[in-house]
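[audit] Reproducing an earlier prediction to check determinism. Same input, same settings, fresh worker. If the tokens differ from the archived copy the diff job will pick it up downstream; this log only records the rerun itself.
[audit] input (277 residues):
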Amino acid sequence: MQDSDLKASKCHRQGTWLADFFSDRALVVAASRGPVTLQTDQVGDTQFKYGEGGLVKALLGLCRHTDAVWIACARTEADTAWRSGSVAMADGNDIRVQFLSPEALAYEGYYNVIANPLLWFLQHSMWDVPRAPMIDRATWQAWENGYVAVNRLFAEAIADHVRATSRSTLVMLQDYHLYLVARFLRDRLRPRERPTMLHFVHVPWPGPEYWRILPPAMRQAILDGLCAVDLLGFQTHEDGLNFIRTCESHLPRAHVNFKRGRVWYRNHATHVRDFPI
């Protein structure tokens, strides 16, 4: 059998497995950006611009197997006005998209102060530590009124979708913009309502010493949020080990198991794995 035939056979088996897996499950994808953005042209018609990043391409492959909804922040005025609906994607499949519209000041703090650059630079080990970052009152305001507020907004929207379906729900959270969502969602739903939660971190995870850059309250909130998921994915095995080391060093009452790739915290197990995208 030729390589092309083997690949086709493998894709067919994967597609069949995914179709079976999602036959009785709903899927919610949550990411800072959606698979599309909307623009209004000169005659007032709505135009869809499709995302081309790796995250979008990877996740849309899953979405075609079930009735999925993708929750993201609005990026344009047209996104905000449109709010939600079904979108025909380039592969011919439809996906429901819901745009959240935080207040402008909250989004500024969430995205342009905390997520980018604070967390992104930290996770890429790019801060000139003796000089930066400067965590001042403005940073704390961006954290509380921006990052925390927007993460809570995502959790509320996801909870609404979970409650609206009679099927088991798989929630897939994406990247460093949404580190607090899982804990807010777990606290918001009753035990029997809680979905299975996965979180994939698309950027590196440095060792515990570098996480000392953050104030303890911020650092612990991030670790607490990530330890509320059932499965936590990283790009590399080293990133996953660094996360477990960070919990061991900075998350009080967490019990770690390096051999099993597991963190036990608040009577809940989070399994840590690497899934090179």
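[audit] rerun output stored. Observation attached for the diff report: The chain has two domains: 3-100, 104-274.
[audit] end
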